[in-house]
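Hey,

Quick one before I head out. I ran the complex with magnesium ion overnight. Inputs first:
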Amino acid sequence: MPLICLASPKGGVGKTTLAANVADALRRRGRRVLSIDFDPQNTLRLHYGVALADGGGFVAGLPMRRDWRQLARPTAAGVALLPHGAIDLRGALGLAAALDRDPELLAAPMREILADPGLLVVADTAPGASQALSLLAPMAAMVVCVLLADATSAALLPEIDSGRFLGTGTLGALLDSRVRVVLNQVDPYSRLSRSAAETVARYLGPRLLGAVCRDEAVAEALASQRMLLDLAPHSRAAEDLREVAGSIEAALPPLPEAVPAAAGPLAWAAR
Ligand SMILES: Nc1ncnc2c1ncn2[C@@H]1O[C@H](COP(=O)(O)OP(=O)(O)OP(=O)(O)O)[C@@H](O)[C@H]1O
Ligand SMILES: [Mg+2]
């Protein structure tokens, strides 16, 4: 049932990479996991080996209120995947207007998905504030905000404090307590990276969930359409990722033991 949203006020920080690999790490911890892509860039699927030309996803069926449980797909990683689906500019504008008029188009299928008590849902989102994020954040058990160990990310800490990127006005502030931060691409051999990471860690205290080092194995895993823990289980980044997944799990309310769903596309048993 718990929803974990990967988000960030900043683009290109590793949200999608961590969404895919955290989902895999949680699956390896015995959870039944569904990974959903809420970013129109539609790139989460690439981590799971979905063909480039395959533009299928939930977005095309949104106006028809299709059941998302039927749209999820099995992946070689053992995580169920619901891609965003390909969308052009006209489609994106139409979708934004439709969601503005009727947020239930997205909220209702999400509630159905989250009603499955043994399912852990990991959602990737677009950079910055988005309609999807402001709808999802109130449903989320945790928003994992990804930052880099650099000056821009340090400058964005007040934005995270205010929760503004999660929603407007009071909503952002209300959701602030669910935000945890992961620092990504930390370079332990760079003075600047180390110093930025230390500054962020001091500022955030226990809200910092963990850090993942910069490691070429992460990009290699995407290039070979495999999960990091599969391709390079002994890499430094893999070690960091396992720790982050453990911290996420520890911070969540206790989950029922992984019980496979009775039938249907979400019926993957934890391995
Ligand atoms: N720990 C890491 N070490 C090395 N490379 C990394 C690491 N994390 C992510 N990357 C690389 O950084 C790039 C950006 O990652 P990703 O696409 O996941 O970012 P994003 O935050 O989802 O971007 P966007 O804001 O566009 O959605 C990718 O090339 C990815 O392979
Ligand atoms: Mg992304």
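The mean pLDDT is 90.

Talk tomorrow,
K.
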